[in-house]
Amino acid sequence: MIDLHCHILPNLDDGPTSLDMALEMVRVALADGITITAATPHGRTSRSVSWVYSVDLVQQRIATLRDALAAADLPLTIVPGTEIFYESDVPERIKAGELLTYGNSRTILLEFGNDILVTMLEQAVFAVQLAGYRVLIAHPERIKVVQDNPNVLIPLIERGALLQLTADALTGSQGKRIQRLAETLVSHALVQVMASDAHGPHVRRMPLLAEARRQAANLIGDAAATAMVHDTPIAILADLPIDPPSPEPIQSRWKFW
Length: 257
Fold this sequence. Notes:
By secondary structure, the protein is an alpha/beta fold. The protein has a single domain, classed as Metal-dependent hydrolases (TIM Barrel, Alpha-Beta Barrel), CATH 3.20.20.140. 41% of the residues lie in helices and 13% in strands. The chain has ten helices and eight strands. It has helices at 19-32, 55-71, 90-95, 118-130, 144-148, 153-158, 167-171, 176-187, 210-220, 222-238, and strands spanning 2-6, 36-39, 77-80, 83-85, 107-111, 134-138, 162-166, 193-195. The strands form two sheets. A five-stranded parallel β-sheet has the order 4-5-6-7-8. Strands 1-2-3 form a three-stranded parallel β-sheet. α1 links the parallel β1 (2-6) and β2. α9 (210-220) crosses α10 (222-238). The longest helix has 17 residues, at 55-71. The radius of gyration is 17 Å and the shape is globular.
């Protein structure tokens, strides 16, 4: 499996605070069946001024972690990335090399405030796409307009955006309401990727995907569930075309609360 959203680099943001803690996360990931992890620290924004971020620093921490993995004989592949909080200058900052895409691809992991309006969400995604990048939206299950009406994701999917569900949401670790929403998103093809969004043992958020993949398989079948944690992530990292299943509108009256 491939985990495209993991805060595994130490002493950068709200992830692990030591290399040993990062290695603990690696061991958990490997035991769970994860073979590739994208290191996606929060990019420095006006909302995260206390976090440390620069492309050079991320690359340095990745090199240090890779050296530690080799020394400990831990066969986890680490690829670079960034969880980018959307602000109006994001396209320019990516083009200037101030924020990392996934590896050598032209896909970025984009995060939005939970209270963003639908029109602003659509405009932001279009602005990044217009700049030449593919958008993977982090944890849409947290966004209020999605909680109110998951069908708002359909136009984004039809315009080429991808949605990444947090595995813990599907397994119930975030509560029954979020779990019900996650099940709805999966069963209606409103999410295409599943990732851990792990931050470390200090906050009890470890890189685990297997149980969520199993639960997704119960909803949509084994092949489609595997695509969420392997086939689609592989295509993202390789800049290959992706043709996800067509989203299925929710016809019944939806109520999150």
